[in-house]
Amino acid sequence: MIEILKSILYGIVEGITEWLPISSTGHMILLEEIMPMNVSKSFWSMFLVVIQLGAILAVVVLYWNKIFPFRKNKEGKYTSVKSIWILWSKILVATIPAAFIGLALDDWIDAHLYNGFVVAIMLILVGVAFIYIENRNKDMCPSVNSLSALSYKDALIIGLFQVVAAVLPGTSRSGATIVGGLMIGVSRAVAAEFTFFLAIPVMFGASLLKLVKFGLAFSVLEFFILVIGMVVAFFVSIFVIRFLMSYIKKHDFKVFGWYRIVLGAFVLIFFAIRALL
After folding, report:
1. What tens digit of pLDDT does each residue of 76-124 get?
2. Whole-model pTM?
3. Cα–Cα distance between 104 and 262 in angstroms, integer?
4. Buried-state track 82-111, b at ≥16 Cβ within 10 A, e below 16
């Protein structure tokens, strides 16, 4: 029962931090330091990634009309929507860099970079980047104000920023791609939406990779821990995505930058004190 309650807490944290640009993986690693699950190391490595599927499904539900490339006509037949196929081709272009790096370095990243120190440093660095870019862009009008105006070059640049998040936990996948979008003149709303859509193939691919490596030999407890975590992450994500899109209509991302800096500093102090004790 204790592990199930922990799974609910992990699902809440995942649902909040997957979409706010504050690093879901970073928060999950830090939560594990404070409240570890009584599970095997291999299950934890898989859980850390696959729980994100619940959050991703929230995007599919909320944005179905924007991402499903078929529409039913008056005769009841489905017809293809060219603009949505073009959007998916841009998502594919943006996905390729992170997919390549993820497949090549997955085990090495798990072994060497999934730790509190790396998380803390990246929380601070990306926080500083948010504040700097928002200050720089304060009096500038974005050049890309719709998904259709996003070029393939823009998509590739955003995808290259996603590579940083794929390699360095604590960066935040959404944080990295939003920073990349803002740097090249993409509006906050478009950068956020493209980040949501980009998460779909990336996280489905990453989850499949982890599941294949782990196998399907779940214990009953492990199965319930994973499913409950995903379900909680799904419902929390519905609320958080709606909140974020409403928030950025009137506000910038600097508050998330300051949050990252403060949290990163706290984490560094926490690990420094623990090392001395």
Report:
1. 788 889 999 999 999 999 998 877 776 677 677 667 777 778 888 999 9
2. 0.86
3. 33
4. eebeebeebbebbbebbbebbeeebeebbe
Q: Which amino acid type is present at position 265?
A: A
Kind and range of the H or E run holding 126: helix 116-136
In contact, 116 and 29? CB cutoff 8 Å: yes
Do residues 142 and 276 lie in contact, with contact meaning Cβ atoms separated by under 8 Å? no
Give the residue extent of every domain in the chain.
2-276
Q: Are 228 and 12 in contact, with CB atoms under 8 Å apart?
A: no
Token couple for 117: 């120190």
In whole angstroms, give the CA distance from residue 266 to residue 263: 5
CB contact at 8 A, 95 and 202 = yes
Give counts: helices (H), strands (E), the chain. 12, 2
